[in-house]
Amino acid sequence: MWLSIAASLATIALKFAAALVTGSVGFLSDAIESIINVIAAIVGLWALKVAAKPADDNHNFGHAKAEYFSAQVEGAMILLASVVIIYTAIERIINPQPIEQPGLGLVFSGVAALINLAVGLILMRAGKIYRSATLDADGRHLITDVWTTAGVIVGIAVVTLTGWQVLDPIIALAVGINILFTGYSLLKNSILGLLSQALPEDELSLIDAFLERFASAHGVTFTSVRTVAFGRDRLVNVVMQVPGSWSVERSHDYADLVEAGIATELGGAETVVHIEPLGVKTQVGPMWA
């Protein structure tokens, strides 16, 4: 996140320089989005620090959901930026202005795009490794910013070659609409996370495959498999039905194996195994708030 903050500050300077020397509202809209990158990165750094705190008496399942708050702030700021950009673009369509020194502006903007591309890929990779909603959201935002900048660069180049000045605010309008959808997507995903959405399909498949292998090997059955993601943490609740003749100790030992196996499959997870005798109908109730 410190890398993201540094990259965002550098790209702000480059993009505002491009907007200043050219007078292009397209470059200006791109620069405004970069301001959001800095704010989002600072909030993301705070969220990661909170999420890293261990569980305590008041937060028995840890603080991982703080990352969803970061994604909500980022999404809201992106929506605000899109409104500003769209308004500026419409105003420039009504009152067009010529672009000056486009070549220098294209160089500044191109360097900024390369910085965002490199940092965005690094953040997305780290987000996948650490299962961090904050790192992944920030990385995807930077990659979206790269595509935005690329569109602006192409548009300004076309304006330079053709002299169609109206293309500049039209490009800015397209940028505003594009990041409007980006902000909506971030808000939607963060809200789903706060609503304790089940784990992704690929992770559910890993759990199902492991439980199927375990059941076949040890003569047990599994029912009522429920999952939830708390930021980077994975919580799994499963009912294991065992032969009625098994002792409590033996059932407990097998439950430990299940918990360890699921943690291995997911690269870390907290699993609760409820033991029942075979043939008992399981009722599904609430797991975690």
Quick take:
It is built from 8 helices and 3 strands; from the N terminus they run H-H-H-H-H-H-H-E-E-H-E.
Task: Describe what you observe in this structure.
- With 289 residues, the protein is mainly α.
- It has 8 helices and 3 strands.
- It has helices at residues 2-22, 25-51, 66-94, 102-130, 133-162, 167-194, 201-218, 248-266; strands at 221-230, 233-242, 270-277.
- The chain has a 3-stranded mixed beta sheet with strand order 1-2-3, with helices on one face.
- The longest helix has 30 residues, at 133-162.
- The mean pLDDT is 84.
Unreliable spans: none
**Helix and strand string, N-terminal first?**
HHHHHHHEEHE
Q: What's the N-to-C terminus distance?
A: 29 Å
Major sheet: arrangement of strands? 1-2-3
Q: Helicity, in percent?
A: 55-70%
Please, how many helices?
8
Content of β-strand? 5-15%
How many β strands by DSSP? Answer: 3
Note the main sheet: 3 strands, mixed
Q: Output mean pLDDT.
A: 84
Secondary structure layout:
Blueprint: H1 2-22, H2 25-51, H3 66-94, H4 102-130, H5 133-162, H6 167-194, H7 201-218, E1 221-230, E2 233-242, H8 248-266, E3 270-277
Parallel strand pairs: 2-3
Antiparallel strand pairs: 1-2
Helix pairs in contact: 1-2, 1-4, 2-3, 2-5, 2-6, 3-5, 3-6, 4-5, 5-6, 7-8
